[in-house]
Design a protein that fits this description.
InterPro entries: AAA+_ATPase, DNA_pol3_clamp-load_cplx_C, DNA_pol_III_gamma-3, DNA_pol_III_gamma/tau_C, DNA_pol_III_sug/sutau_N, DNA_Rep/Repair_Clamp_Loader, HLD_clamp_pol_III_gamma_tau, P-loop_NTPase. It comes from Pontixanthobacter aquaemixtae. This protein has 601 residues and is α/β, with parallel strands linked by helices. The chain has 5 domains: 33 residues, no CATH class; 174 residues, P-loop containing nucleotide triphosphate hydrolases (Rossmann fold), CATH 3.40.50; 66 residues, Orthogonal Bundle (Helicase, Ruva Protein, domain 3); 114 residues, Zinc Finger, Delta Prime, domain 3 (Up-down Bundle); 80 residues, GMP Synthetase, Chain A, domain 3, CATH 3.30.300. It has 27 helices and 10 strands. Strands 2-3-4-1-5 form a 5-stranded parallel β-sheet, with helices on one face. It starts with 18 loop residues before the first helix and ends in a 24-residue tail after the last helix. The N terminus and C terminus are likely disordered.
Length: 601
């Protein structure tokens, strides 16, 4: 390039002042061409029509320099509503609205990343402005893709379809430009359409400035909003738009979609590899296509050109399915040494500890679902289905739920730990040891049974018990239960927690109480017993030592059961490994109230 002598930086070649210089001085490209002609002779002249003419029966492939590579997420962006996967309810609603001429003036598309929000907005713009191949068509849910509005919108150059990124245009001034422009009719389309992506990024003042226009826009204007964080939008904006919640795409549908794209790209891919990619996409088509792009490039490096499960697993740092099952098997078998060895092996292969924890959680979840449904487990291979089915039959629901909670807690710890591998090992060991603990539900039933059968030893024994204890044909607990059943809950509670039976016969009760009680409860007990049995009772409080109260018996039974549990070899081993551990008793089997004194020192 030859600079202008006057002002080489400010005087361009296309200004009037430099026109003479342009004619007098050749461009750099002309000089280069002239030099090449002098060295090699003139190039053969070829007419443009002759260059573009393909061979008969063949489609001319564009040169790599003419059409650079486009990533799959852009290359396979939906151009029609039929290509938009997983959003059938929204498409049906739009089709009905167009058919009945009941189009809203503002639409809001929400959903996670990569489910098609911006693509849907462009498709709506096409549907509203399509004129058909003959130029006579109207709004349609199936835009032709051939007319000038369709092609211009697809290429992003339509003058009446304005796309704005709210992340970089957040202020009132940006919105004011829209407010000023909506007054003018569309130049070459049926509707002037404003597509605002990530609309939640607009400032509060910008939203307020847009409200009036958004509520009563001109008939020729449509607003299309897209956002991933709909909860950040003011309710005043939400109430002025027709909202569509775009759903996450199911993994099975993503796998099928990726398989079709591999066919169009002439790429071979294993079903298990596509399933891994679909799972890693987490419902996002764009994320999945980006991973697929990477997997294809990774496969090409190997020379085979096939996307295999092993390569995808290595690329994503995922744990092998069989290795996941093997690890869970060691955990359930209580083999700590083998489990740690399997974890070290996976870590050496490049599997991240967080991915390892997610793999175990996924297995436990699928086992639980198979157990609840009673059907075949969700697995790509028969080997895995058989393993999941076997675990679903052998493990109890309580074990699975407890294991899930332990793994979930471990997952959170691994994510925040300075050394993820060490944290994962400790979390898995905790799950291994806790998996063999007695089931809390069974333990609670055992404690209830001991309490009902009077697991505590009586205060008096031998002849003294025969002389003073309740008679064999009359049980104090049954008497209290009859008072409870009669509806006198207060008296039943007092009898259970305070009364120490000295002697009990038909129509006669002698009892003692703790010295801390000074009130006279004999009349209250007399009325309660009469109401429950239909006969008068002689009730007398004395100072003699009586049987433990029903509450004291229950507490003694529970303490006895806890002592026995503490002597269990596995529990002793746990306390040896974790000296600071505590046995916590959840008292869920005692709905009756108790006075403040009942928690004895």
């Amino acid at each position: 390039m030859i600079d202008s002598p006057d002002n080489p930086e400010t005087v361009p070649w296309d200004t009037d002042e430099s026109s003479d210089k342009e004619e007098a001085q050749p461009t750099a490209a002309e000089l280069e061409d002239a030099g090449q002609s002098a060295m090699f002779g003139d190039a053969p002249s070829v007419e443009p029509e002759e260059k573009a003419k393909p061979e008969p029966g063949k489609t001319q492939e564009p040169a790599p320099s003419d059409q650079p590579y486009r990533v799959l997420a852009r290359k396979y962006r939906p151009q029609t509503f039929s290509e938009l996967i997983g959003q059938e309810p929204m498409v049906q609603t739009l089709a009905n609205a167009i058919a009945r001429d009941r189009l809203a003036h503002a639409f809001l598309m929400t959903g996670v990343r990569g489910v098609g929000k911006t693509s849907t907005a462009r498709l709506i713009a096409k549907a509203l402005n399509c004129v058909g191949p003959d130029g006579e068509g109207g709004p349609t849910i199936d835009p032709c893709g051939q007319c000038e509005p369709c092609t211009a919108i697809a290429e992003g150059r339509h003058i009446d379809v304005i796309e704005m990124d709210a992340a970089s245009h957040t202020g009132v001034d940006d919105v004011r430009e829209i407010i000023e422009a909506v007054r003018y009719a569309a130049v070459s389309a049926r509707y002037k359409i404003y597509i605002i992506d990530e609309v939640h990024m607009l400032s509060r003042n910008a939203f307020n400035a847009l409200l009036k226009t958004l509520e009563e826009p001109p008939a020729h204007v449509k607003f299309l909003f897209a956002t991933t964080e709909v909860d950040k939008l003011p309710v005043t904006v939400l109430s002025r738009t027709q909202r569509f919640d775009l759903r996450r795409i199911p993994a099975a549908l993503l796998q099928s979609h990726f398989g079709k794209i591999c066919g169009l790209e002439n790429v071979e891919a294993e079903d298990e590899a596509l399933a891994m990619i679909a799972g890693a996409a987490e419902g996002s088509v764009r994320d999945g296509l980006s991973i697929l792009d990477q997997a294809i490039a990774h496969a090409d490096l190997g020379g085979e050109g096939q996307v295999t499960a092993a390569r995808v697993q290595d690329m994503l740092g995922l744990s092998d399915k069989s290795a996941q099952r093997k690890l869970l098997g060691h955990l359930l078998a209580g083999d700590a040494k083998a489990m740690l060895a399997a974890m070290d092996e996976q870590y050496a292969l490049g599997v991240e500890p967080l991915a390892l924890m997610r793999g175990q959680m996924d297995l436990v979840h699928r086992i639980t679902v198979a157990q609840v449904s009673g059907g075949e487990a969700d697995a790509p291979t028969s080997e895995e289905r058989d393993a999941l089915k076997d675990w679903a039959e052998r493990l109890s629901p309580g074990q699975l739920h407890r294991l899930w909670q332990l793994l979930l807690k471990g997952h959170d710890e691994v994510r925040q730990a300075p050394d993820p591998l060490v944290s994962a090992q400790m979390a898995m060991l905790r799950a291994l040891h806790a998996n063999d603990f007695p089931d809390p539900g069974k333990l609670a039933k055992k404690l209830e049974h001991l309490a009902e059968t009077g697991g505590a030893a009586p205060a008096n024994s031998g002849a003294g018990e025969a002389a003073q204890g309740p008679s064999a044909d009359l049980d104090w607990k049954q008497v209290v239960d009859s008072v409870q059943a009669n509806g006198n809950h207060l008296a039943a509670s007092i009898m259970m927690m305070q009364v120490r039976v000295v002697s009990l016969e038909e129509g006669s009760l002698r009892f003692s109480r703790d010295s801390r009680f000074q009130d006279d409860i004999a009349p209250q007990l007399r009325d309660a017993l009469m109401g429950a049995t239909g006969r008068r009772w002689v009730v007398e409080e004395c100072q003699e030592e009586g049987e433990p109260t029903l509450l004291e018996r229950e507490e003694a039974a529970q303490q006895h059961a806890m002592d026995e549990l503490r002597k269990h070899p596995l529990v002793e081993a746990t306390f040896a490994a974790f000296p600071d551990a505590e046995m916590v008793e959840e008292d869920t089997a005692r709905p009756r109230g108790r006075n403040n004194w009942s928690k004895r020192a």
